[in-house]
Design goal:
Blueprint lengths: L2 H7 L1 H33 L3 H15 L3 H12 L3 H25 L3 H9 L4 H34 L9 H9 L6 H30 L2 H4 L1
Helix pairs in contact: 2-3, 2-5, 2-7, 2-9, 3-5, 4-5, 5-7, 6-7, 7-9, 8-9
């Protein structure tokens, strides 16, 4: 059986696994963005706080994904829970770092001018600083998404959703019928999903970042 015949024969299952894979990555990126941007807002004015937040997020990224999932399984069990926790933790670093860099790069003259016309601190943050920092934050989310696409495959070790089960099953059955087709289909599927999500980020940037900032 060729790869194309394998895909056609199991299209319904592969389609569902692809949807679950993309859904897990997107939802975890959104959760990480909420947390990461919040952390960035809380610490970007403090050099010590910024360094500490970046160091903590970096230290999480140094933990091998197999080890992190192995530590989470006894606590939260198998399935979606350890997958979501691991993916959110791994996505924090690029988002926190880019939020700090983006907010820290806003020209003080711009915020001073906003305060001069009577804008509150919350108004300056929400209407000026976050808008100017948005390209950097979006770039952090884009990097996090691409990173999570690969890590989500490892999450199959904890019975997580997605195409990782295809890859793992193919590798564990190496040498048997269709094992190579199964591993190859899962791997190529993850790559195609990553390219599709990256294209969506390009469109989001095009429609949400003003021409003045892009230039």
């Amino acid at each position: 059986m060729t790869v194309f015949e394998y895909v056609a024969d199991r299209w319904d299952r592969l389609y569902l696994q692809g949807l679950l894979h993309a859904s897990a990555v997107v939802q975890c990126t959104i959760i990480a963005a909420v947390l990461g941007v919040g952390i960035g807002i809380a610490v970007y004015r403090s050099p010590v706080g910024s360094a500490l937040a970046t160091a903590l997020a970096s230290s999480i990224l140094t933990i091998p994904s197999f080890a992190l999932l192995g530590l989470l399984i006894p606590v939260v069990g198998l399935g979606t829970e350890p997958t979501v926790i691991a993916l959110v933790l791994y996505a924090l670093l690029p988002i926190v770092r880019n939020t700090i860099v983006g907010l820290g790069g806003v020209d003080p003259a711009v915020t001073d001018a906003a305060k001069g016309i009577g804008m509150s601190r919350i108004g300056v943050l929400s209407r000026i600083e976050l808008r100017l920092a948005w390209p950097a934050i979006l770039a952090g989310m884009r990097v996090a998404t691409q990173m999570l696409m690969g890590i989500a495959v490892i999450a199959a070790y904890a019975k997580g959703p997605g195409l990782g089960s295809e890859v793992f099953s193919g590798l564990t059955r190496a040498g048997s019928a269709n094992s190579l087709n199964q591993a190859l289909t899962g791997t190529v599927g993850v790559v195609l999903l990553a390219l599709a999500l990256d294209g969506i980020y390009v469109l989001i940037a095009r429609f949400t970042v003003s021409r003045g900032i892009r230039a």
